[in-house]
UniProtKB/TrEMBL annotation, chain A:
Pfam families: YceI (PF04264)
InterPro entries per record: Lipid/polyisoprenoid-bd_YceI, TTHA0802/YceI-like_sf
Keyword Hydrolase included in the entry's annotation: no
Naturally occurring in which organism (per UniProt): Psychrosphaera saromensis
Domain (Lipid/polyisoprenoid-binding YceI-like): residue spans on this chain: 24-186
Name this polypeptide is given: Lipid/polyisoprenoid-binding YceI-like domain-containing protein
Entry keyword set: Signal
Residues in the signal sequence: 1-22
From TrEMBL, chain B:
MF terms in GO: electron transfer activity; heme binding; metal ion binding
Xref: SUPFAM superfamilies: Transmembrane di-heme cytochromes
Residues forming coiled coils: none
Keyword Ubl conjugation on entry: no
Family recorded in the similarity comment: Belongs to the cytochrome b561 family.
Protein source organism: Psychrosphaera saromensis
PANTHER family (UniProt xref): CYTOCHROME B561, CYTOCHROME B561 HOMOLOG 2
Protein name listed in UniProt: Cytochrome b
Keywords: Cell membrane, Electron transport, Heme, Iron, Membrane, Metal-binding, Transmembrane, Transmembrane helix, Transport
Cofactor(s) needed by this chain: heme b
Gene Ontology biological-process entries: respiratory electron transport chain
This protein's GO CC annotations: plasma membrane
Cellular compartment(s): Cell membrane
Gene3D superfamilies: Transmembrane di-heme cytochromes, Chain C
Length: 188, 180
């Protein structure tokens, strides 16, 4: 439950053969080669950024059948870090994430579409602050291949924008937040 | 008389007591109010700034108070049972303990990320760094619970003082209200 789940589930992937052809990857959170960052507007004058330090996730991916991709990511909401303890305390409180009540956030993909080139569109259910909405992540495949230590990795970058009022934040005035997902998975 | 005697609290003890009382109430009220301030309130930055600065001021005053208390006599107990004196001592000790706990936990909230605390633009009290995980959250819980607890103790303190004055009809309140 401590993971944000970006499950890129292709509808076609539901057939056995296609599922079998996709390789399973686990996000490299141990080595911290995966990041969930956020960017919020401050007063309309500037941006502030932060990230979630604790999360995990997995995805199955096959370059030849992108639509079969699934991704699941579970985020520990209490691990929010904006480089200011007092602000983080506030962000974890009732005005924002209310982490005592909603300690985890989650993303589970529902539909993945190959947009040509390295572009992938990932639609999925994002649960934050106890509210689940369908969001669309515009992702790019960065690359895949052998790593120098005997493993095999694939990495993606994706961004999406959410409006916190869609997630019932008390601090609705925060407005839109950009989420950035930089993930590297290690093939199992 | 500056110093305490067997019969009376001196001016220093008396003034520190009442200044502390006013500050404790003010800091509690300010803290209670400021945590729900809207981000766009003009007090959003000012209120915590004053809360911290006056909190540090009260901390300094409390240190002086403790040194003064230890280096000075305490007026003798008035009538009543031995067990009452013991309980009164315990309650006073709890008030001091809670004060220090509130101040220290407050310090730990604001300094959890290495930032210090500004004292009226005079100087910055440095951070000791993050001493334990989730410091700002845990210290925040302690700060809040201890603040409510001390207010309950204050109610007890006031009721006890009034009991002495109106029921026992003794000198308790007069001992701490001689201002010159």
């Amino acid at each position: 439950m401590k993971k944000l789940s970006l499950t890129l589930v292709g509808l076609l992937a539901l057939t056995a053969s296609q599922v079998a052809s996709a390789a399973d990857y686990v996000l490299d959170v141990k080595g911290a080669h995966a990041f969930i960052n956020f960017k919020a507007n401050h007063l309309g004058y500037s941006f502030l950024t932060g990230r979630f330090n604790k999360f995990d996730g997995k995805f199955s991916y096959d370059a030849k059948d992108v639509a079969a991709t699934k991704i699941t990511v579970n985020i520990d909401a209490t691990s929010i870090d904006s480089n200011h303890a007092e602000r983080d305390k506030h962000l974890r409180g009732g005005d924002f994430l209310a982490v005592e009540e909603f300690p985890t956030a989650k993303f589970v993909s529902t539909k993945v579409t190959d947009k040509g080139g390295d572009k992938v569109e990932v639609v999925g259910d994002f649960t934050l602050h106890g509210v689940t909405n369908s969001i669309t992540i515009d992702a790019t495949k960065i690359g895949e291949g052998k790593d120098p230590w005997g493993g095999y990795r694939a990495g993606f970058a994706g961004t999406t924008t959410i409006d916190v009022s869609d997630y019932d934040f008390k601090a609705g005035w925060v407005g839109k937040i950009e989420l950035e997902l930089l993930i590297e998975g290690i093939k199992q | 008389m500056l110093k305490n005697t067997d019969e009376q609290f001196g001016l220093i003890s008396t003034y520190i007591h009442w200044i502390s009382a006013v500050m404790v109430f003010s800091l509690f009220a300010l803290g209670f109010w400021m945590v729900d301030l809207n981000y766009y309130s003009e007090w959003y930055r000012e209120a915590p700034y004053y809360h911290k600065a006056f909190g540090l001021t009260l901390f300094s005053l409390t240190l002086i108070r403790i040194i003064w208390k230890l280096s000075n006599k305490t007026p003798k107990d008035l009538g009543g049972k031995k067990v009452e004196h013991k309980l009164a001592k315990l309650a006073h000790l709890a008030l001091y303990g809670l004060l220090l706990l509130i101040m220290f936990s407050g310090y730990l909230i604001s300094t959890a990320d290495g930032r210090g605390i500004e004292l009226f633009n005079l100087f910055t009290v440095p951070s000791m760094g993050e001493l334990f995980a989730n410091q700002e959250d845990l210290a925040g819980e302690v700060h809040e619970i201890a603040a409510y607890t001390i207010m309950a103790m204050v109610v007890l303190h006031v009721l006890a003082a009034l009991k002495h004055h109106f029921i026992d009809k003794d000198e308790t309140i007069k001992r701490i209200t001689k201002f010159k």
